[in-house]
Amino acid sequence: MALSQTLIRRLKDPKPFETIVTAPWLVSPASERTFEVFNPSTGELLAELPDMGVAETRAAIDRAAVAQPEWAGLTARDRSDMLWRWHQLIVLHTDDLAAILTAEMGKPLAEAKSEVSHAAAYLQWYAEEANRIYGETIAAPSLDRRMLVIKQPIGVVGAITPWNFPASMVARKISPALAAGCAVVLKPAEQTPLVAGAMFALAHEAGFPPGVVNLIYASEGDAVGRELCTHPAVRKISFTGSTEVGRLLMRQCSDQVKKLSLELGGNAPFIVFDDADVDAAVDGAIQAKFRNAGQTCVSANRLYVQSGVHDEFARKFIERVQTLSVGDGFQPDVAIGPLIDTRALAKIEGHVADALDKGGSVRCGGRRIDGDGTFFAPTVLTGITRDMRVAQEETFGPLAPIIRFDDATQVVREANDTIYGLAAYFYASNLSRVWRVAEALEYGMVGINTGRMSSEAAPFGGMKQSGMGREGSRHGLEDYLEMKYLCMGGI
């Protein structure tokens, strides 16, 4: 039977702990508490999982701490080979993993398959990077000494992943940690834990030693996160989620001066200048705004369009948005799945209502879609001003506000006028403008004439209150390594 059918059937067993407790990557539950996982498209119960807390997290950390020295002591080639095997198993089971992902998160199956492939790409990348952890020698100031630098794994890593990309975020955090020689304790989002469980099953099949990869299921992240941040055996925390939670984790880690990687909220501007290719800009805006139903941290949140092309862009963009089909991710030709829950629906409705109260116009969509799922029609608003919530807050849904602008210098100032600095996009053809705007935007990632820029080979991360550190690329590996200077005298 396919992995997806087997996993979900076992999790829905009346005795859910029968297979869960014996999984090598899970500690035994300390209580009989459980929580439920639902399909946001249908409301169907998918699974009942053990609801873990401090005791289980502590036990998982202890297991990781025991496994850490042996894992760090392997050769880079050994760690690389295991990551390669895991990569190959992910590729082999792409369809199954995508089916689990669509069932628990709702995104269209084609998007889910693309995400699983992206996850596999991170494993492949860091399987290769594991062999490229280099030190250096330094010219000594005297003939009787030698100076050099080595890099060593930081130690046990606590990772917390979000619900919107539950497969790729697992791989993006775990693969560099494992490549560097770090054991990992992962807590996936409570809304989407099943694909993480399936990926860990494949990691076990790939041959990772006991205690190297550990999974914590929990309906609430507070207790688990606090234990990860305060336990002295955990040397690093990697978190993707809201800026509010990121601030909390920083405070909890501060007493131990624990190393952190944080990928937090965004408020991405998408700027279309008069000299842009309007058709290409429309294509890019559709990608940047409506992928994953707008539920991405790098989603275009504010669409600034210069007056000379505003009307043309708005007309063509609205025409495209009206063709986007909404529905269950398993149905053919569906472009947009559900929002993750009713709170997400309420937020987008609040943004629409606030914009209308302050003079904005709904050009298409603007309403939730009746049915069992948490669906919202793809929406375009015009007549947007800076005092509206939609221009100030991250919506995290299929809502595109179009803001007209005249002055190119002023629009960059407005784009930067936010506490966030994760991603930005702009379309222009004048080379001088391209360089000036790219350098002036206060964002960790800038898409120029493209609406999609994520890659395992590129550094992903933000500035300001969008986080610290980078994931992906060779830079992503450095966050899991400690630099040690060795000075040898008496030569």
TrEMBL record:
The answer to keyword Oxidoreductase applying to this record is yes
Q: Which CDD domains match?
A: ALDH_F5_SSADH_GabD
Q: Active site at which residues?
A: 263
* InterPro entries, per database record: Ald_DH/histidinol_DH, Ald_DH_C, Ald_DH_CS_GLU, Ald_DH_N, Aldehyde_DH_dom, Aldehyde_DH_Superfamily, Succ_semiAld_DH
The alphabetical list of record keywords is:
Oxidoreductase
Query: Per the database record, which ranges form the Aldehyde dehydrogenase domain?
Result: 29-485
PROSITE patterns in the record: ALDEHYDE_DEHYDR_GLU
Q: Which Pfam families match?
A: Aldedh
Family named by the database record = Belongs to the aldehyde dehydrogenase family.
What protein am I looking at? NAD-dependent succinate-semialdehyde dehydrogenase
